[in-house]
Amino acid sequence: MSRRPAPRPTPGHRKRGAARQRAARTRRLALAVGGLIVLAVAVLAFGLHRLDQGAPTSAPATSAGTGGGQSGSPMGTQQAVGQLAPDGTFTTISGQTERVASLRGQPTLLWFVTTWCDSCQAGTRTMSAQLDALRATGVRVVELELYQDLGQPGPSLPSFVRTYAQTSGRDPSWTFGSASQELSQTYDPQSYLDIYYLLDEHGRIVYVNSSPSASMPELLAQARALR
Description:
This protein has helices spanning 11-54, 118-136, 157-165, 181-187, 212-224; strands at residues 62-63, 89-92, 97-99, 108-113, 140-145, 174-179, 194-199, 205-209. By secondary structure, it is an alpha+beta fold. It has 2 domains: 10-54; 59-224, Glutaredoxin. An 8-stranded mixed sheet has the order 1-8-7-4-5-6-2-3. The N and C termini lie far apart (118 Å).
């Protein structure tokens, strides 16, 4: 018994088959692109999370009344409440090289900032408004730009002072300068954008906090306790 020959595909059949193949390729391409998008979003989110961890904006407060010692440092370093502030150099806005050790003899707020940091800008405005109150406690302010502004573009230090400290930036009780790389690493190894140390007249650290715009009442209370 002879077999019947297989029917030849008609042009309509060929067109429908080609359409199905194109649709299948389109679905595979869409799935591949969707997978790449999901992967890219995950990588970006992870990278932003790491960046945020690498440059935290503030540190928890600690003072002589909260335990001191190694555990008293918000950065997990030896710069803790109760210890002598480590020495190091900085250059004032007028170009003079000074040392932290030379600050002994008068209570000092040693404050590390970046010129592009929102809380640093707000804190400098607040400091300008509260400088008389802080000066009344006998505390002077030394505000230092972290080394190379932590590698980010920002206003120059003179521009920063004019904009945010305004006329108070010329007050003799408020010194502006730039920290050396060693000094920045010593006091701010975690690259906090806005952190300060209150030193007593002997150069010992008595209080550590950040963002004076938010913590000025606590800072003034700590400064008054030094008298």
